[in-house]
C-alpha cells in the first residue's frame, strides 16, 4: 500500500549550522517557502517529513523519517525544530495555523510510533546531541528581543535630540519686579506751550539810582503834556533855549 499525506503546511525549511552557530535555509538557491507534508505508510506504519519548494522546479529541501522517541520542540509559536541522526531541522511556518496543524500531525505520528513494540528500535543508534537546546534557543530569542529594544531606544533618542536642536531656544520669563520694557520710538509733536525763563528779579536795594539828564526829564514832561492834547508849549521852547544857552 502506498504512502498518503496526513498533513500539509507552508513553511521555510531551515537546518542548523554547527560551525557558524546559526540557522541557514535548506537546499540551494534563495530562501523561499516550501510545501511541507507528513507521509504515512500503513503497511510499515512509518512516517516521514517531505518538503518541496513552491517554485517551478519544486526542489526537495527535506526528506526526513520520523523515528520513535523523536523530540519535537515547539520553540516559538511559528518556529518548530527537531533533530535526527544527521542534523537539526527547523520549520519557520508562514502562519500560526500552519504551525498548529503540522504540530498536531507530528504528535499523532509520534503517538502511533510510541505504541509500537520496542523490537527493532532499541538497536537504532541514538541521534547525536548536536544543535541548540531549547534553553539556548530561548536565550537567543531573548537576546534578539533585547537588541531590538535597545536599537529602538537609540532611534527615539536620536530623533529627540534632532528635534531639540531644530527648535528655537525658549524665551526666559521675566522675573517679577524686573526692569520695564524699553520705550518705543519718540514721535515729533508740536509743543503745547512755549517755555520762557522767569523775569529777572528787582535790582539790589540800598544803592543810589543813576542820575538822569535834564533833557531826559524834560522829554518825559513834554510827553505827559502831549498825551493830554497840547501840541506845543512856549515854556518848552524857552526851556529848550535856556538849556542850549
Summing up helix and strand content along with how strands pair, one would put the structural category as alpha+beta
Uncertain segments are: 120-130
Classify the helix fraction into a percent range. Answer: 25-40%
Count of runs of 4 or more consecutive helical residues: 4
Query: Roughly what fraction of the amino acids lie in strands?
Result: 15-25%
Through-space gap between termini: 182 Å
* Major sheet attributes: 7 strands, antiparallel
Short description:
The protein is 31% helix and 21% strand. It has helices at 96-114, 134-166, 214-227, 234-244; strands at 4-17, 22-25, 34-41, 46-53, 60-66, 79-83, 88-93.
Topology (SSEs and partners):
Blueprint: E1 4-17, E2 22-25, E3 34-41, E4 46-53, E5 60-66, E6 79-83, E7 88-93, H1 96-114, H2 134-166, H3 214-227, H4 234-244
Antiparallel strand pairs: 1-2, 1-3, 1-7, 3-4, 4-5, 6-7
What does this 3D model show about the protein?
Helix content is 31%, strand content 21%. Residues 120-130 have low confidence and may be disordered. The chain contains 4 helices and 7 strands. The protein is α+β, with helices and mostly antiparallel strands and 245 residues long. The longest helix has 33 residues, at 134-166. Strands 1, 2, 3, 4, 5, 6 and 7 form a 7-stranded antiparallel beta sheet that branches. The relative contact order is 0.10. The N and C termini lie far apart (182 Å). The chain has helices at residues 96-114, 134-166, 214-227, 234-244; strands at 4-17, 22-25, 34-41, 46-53, 60-66, 79-83, 88-93. Belongs to the Ena/VASP family. Keywords: Actin-binding, Cell projection, Cytoplasm, Cytoskeleton, Phosphoprotein, SH3-binding.
Amino acid at each position: 500500500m502506498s504512502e498518503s499525506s496526513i498533513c500539509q503546511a507552508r513553511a521555510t525549511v531551515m537546518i542548523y549550522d554547527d560551525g557558524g552557530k546559526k540557522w541557514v535555509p535548506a537546499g540551494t538557491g534563495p530562501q523561499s517557502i516550501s510545501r511541507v507534508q507528513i507521509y504515512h505508510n500503513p503497511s510499515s506504519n512509518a512516517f516521514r517529513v517531505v518538503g518541496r519548494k513552491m517554485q517551478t522546479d519544486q526542489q526537495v529541501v527535506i526528506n526526513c523519517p520520523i523515528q520513535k522517541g523523536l523530540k519535537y520542540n515547539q520553540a516559538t509559536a511559528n518556529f518548530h525544530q527537531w533533530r535526527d541522526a544527521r542534523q537539526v531541522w527547523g520549520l519557520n511556518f508562514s502562519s500560526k495555523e500552519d504551525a498548529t496543524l503540522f504540530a498536531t500531525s507530528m504528535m499523532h505520528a509520534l503517538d502511533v510510533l510510541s505504541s509500537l513494540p520496542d523490537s527493532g528500535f532499541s538497536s537504532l543508534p541514538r541521534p547525536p546531541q548536536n544543535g541548540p537546546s531549547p534553553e539556548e534557543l530561548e536565550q537567543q530569542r531573548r537576546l534578539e528581543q533585547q537588541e531590538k529594544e535597545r536599537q529602538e531606544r537609540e532611534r527615539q533618542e536620536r530623533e529627540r535630540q534632532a528635534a531639540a536642536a531644530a527648535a528655537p531656544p525658549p524665551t526666559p520669563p521675566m522675573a517679577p519686579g524686573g526692569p520695564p520694557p524699553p520705550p518705543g520710538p519718540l514721535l515729533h509733536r508740536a509743543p503745547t506751550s512755549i517755555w520762557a525763563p522767569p523775569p529777572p528779579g528787582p535790582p539790589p536795594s540800598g544803592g543810589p539810582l543813576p542820575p538822569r539828564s535834564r533833557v531826559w526829564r524834560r522829554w518825559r514832561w513834554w510827553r505827559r503834556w502831549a498825551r493830554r492834547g497840547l501840541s506845543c508849549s512856549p515854556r518848552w521852547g524857552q526851556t529848550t533855549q535856556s538849556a542850549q544857552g
